[in-house]
Amino acid sequence: MNIISRGFRGRHRPDGDRLPPGQYLVDDFPVLSAGPTPRVPLERWEFAIDTEAEQTHRWSWQEFMALPSETPTVDIHCVTKWTKLDTTWEGVSLDVLFEDVESAAEYALVYSYGGYTTNLPLEDLLDGKAWIVHRFDGEDLEPRHGGPARLIVPHLYFWKSAKWVRGIRLLNEDWPGFWETAGYHNYGDPWREQRYEGD
Amino acid sequence: MRRLVWRAAELAEIVTETATARTLRFRVPEWPGHLAGQHVDVRLTAEDGYTAQRSYSLAGPADGDLVDLTVETAPDGEVSPYLTEVIEVGDQVELRGPVGGWFVWRPESKAPVVLVAGGSGIVPLMAMVRARRQAGSQVPFRLLYSLRDPGRRYYAEELRRPDPGLDVSYLYTRSAPPGASRPAGRIMLDDLAEGGWPASFEPDCYVCGPTAFVEAAADLLLALGHAPERIRTERFG
Ligand SMILES: Cc1cc2nc3c(=O)[nH]c(=O)nc-3n(C[C@H](O)[C@H](O)[C@H](O)COP(=O)(O)OP(=O)(O)OC[C@H]3O[C@@H](n4cnc5c(N)ncnc54)[C@H](O)[C@@H]3O)c2cc1C
After folding, report:
1. How confident is the model at residue B2 (pLDDT cuts 50, 70, 90)?
2. Which end of chain B has fewer CB atoms at under 10 Å, N or C?
């Protein structure tokens, strides 16, 4: 039973069924990250998948851009409680990147330029659930939103959608990332309000 | 596993900071304590069961079961106008925390500190200033506080009082008071070069405020040679 705050009425936004509990809608695009924005020159950029057997699959920017791309339109949900509906991205499905990867690992640790990490079960990246994107709303992805390229995993809280993504390490055991070791939930399902450890 | 529970919080005292901001002192029975820089989630529930939650930084170290938040009215906002204009002493909200283990200052830390605040971004940084004083820490602090005009100053009186080892510079963006040494304008390289510590001192830098401000200030710190891993940021969106 919640405690009622006398005199509070609230705004009662109508879009209930697309808004996970505790979230509110925004039209702008807030930015959240733990440190300064890394700037990654494209000629030095690369993306890698490292398997548990220490095999590395690597793409340069040019190779990455030559892969077939998709333009998913998805809703995104940040743990700081904003939700943005119908965001359109362009990038490469993780299914494409994982095509030639042999692995029996269950866990993925995503790592970024600048040192950020976040973990999730590998299955949450596959089957059309996640993309490495380089464009937002028809424009190249700005550095503050994670450019040149970021991960998008729309069905989890947005801290899982690592900005400035650099690679994915496949692991047999789960390895909590940056926010996950700082008190945030290990999985982060917005529909179950898995914000903090223990939720 | 530690579970963050919602706790009843009763408003015990209101301190007016500016025309649009006030500090709310809540009594939260069995508050577990917190570190300077952490925040709480506040949940409001209307009579018909509708709820809204927002995050607010803790403005000072815990004082038993009392915790302070300082809230600025966001025009047309849903939650902040309630906290700055409607709620009265004796009313209740729910609160849970503390949250956040990264944007924190620990009293045992020995590194010099640069605090860079934009607007209400001063709140968690003030918690660090207060925690330093409470712990009797000798670590040198420098605070740069960017704000629109002198009327926007939070904690004005407290920051005017001498606090050995703490230097405060105000950076007014729209209108500076008469006699100010710096013309009104946005934060620049020179401000951080003069009001902060040189990168060679390896200070811990904490930057907090609206996104655009945090972006600008963090980039300037990088340009001055501060290592990215020593720059911690908190964006209020
Ligand atoms: C970690 C963290 C710590 C924070 N600490 C503090 C703190 O110490 N002090 C503090 O004051 N804030 C703090 N904030 C910000 C705070 O959480 C809220 O975002 C802020 O109080 C605004 O909430 P609100 O409900 O009043 O506004 P919201 O209803 O969320 O609206 C936000 C803005 O969007 C605009 N807006 C909303 N709805 C509409 C609409 N329909 N049409 C047009 N514009 C609209 C409003 O003008 C408003 O300015 C913190 C945020 C974070 C993430």
Report:
1. low
2. N
Cβ B54 under 6 angstroms from ligand 1: yes
- Whether omega before A148 lies within 30 degrees of 0, making that bond cis, reads yes
The tokens of A66 are what? 């030559």
So what's the pLDDT on residue B189? Answer: 96
In this prediction, residue B1 carries a pLDDT of: 45
Ligand 1 in reach of B76 Cβ (< 6 A): yes
- CA distance readout (Å), B84 to B3, B37, B67, B74, B102: 29, 21, 16, 10, 28
Looking up tokens 């409470």 gives B134
Q: Is the peptide bond before B98 cis (omega within 30 degrees of 0)?
A: yes
- Per-residue confidence band for B55, with pLDDT thresholds at 50, 70 and 90: very high
Name the residue with higher pLDDT: B141 or A1: B141
Find out whether the beta carbon of B53 lies less than 6 Å from any atom of ligand 1.
no
> CA of B151 to nearest chain A CA: how many angstroms apart?
27
What is d(CA B95, CA B9) in angstroms, rounded to the nearest whole number?
6
Question: Would you say A168 and B86 are in contact if contact means Cβ atoms under 8 Å apart?
Answer: no
- φ, ψ at B77 (rounded to 5°): -75, 165
User: Average pLDDT by consecutive 10-residue portion of chain A (199 residues)?
Assistant: 89 74 87 85 95 94 97 95 95 96 92 95 94 96 94 98 96 93 94 91
pLDDT class of B169 with cuts at 50, 70, 90? very high
pTM, 2 dp: 0.78
SS3 of chain B: CCCCCCEEEEEEEEEEEECCEEEEEEECCCCCCCCECCEEEEEEECCCCCEEEEEEEECCCCECCEEEEEEECCCCCCCHHHHHHHCCCCCEEEEEEEECCCCCECCCCCCCEEEEEEHHHHHHHHHHHHHHHHHCCCCCEEEEEEECCHHHCCCHHHHHCCCCCEEEEEEECCCCCCCCCCCCCCCCHHHHHHHCCCHHHCCEEEEEECHHHHHHHHHHHHHCCCCHHHEEEEECC
- Rounded distance between C-alpha atoms, residue B99 and residue A6, angstroms: 26
What is d(CA B53, CA B10) in angstroms, rounded to the nearest whole number?
A: 16
Distance CA B105, CA B70 (A): 19
Q: What is the percent of chain B where pLDDT is above 90?
A: 87
> Which of A50, A119, B160, A6 has the alpha carbon at shortest distance from A59?
A50
Which residue has the CA at smallest separation from atom 37 of ligand 1? B77
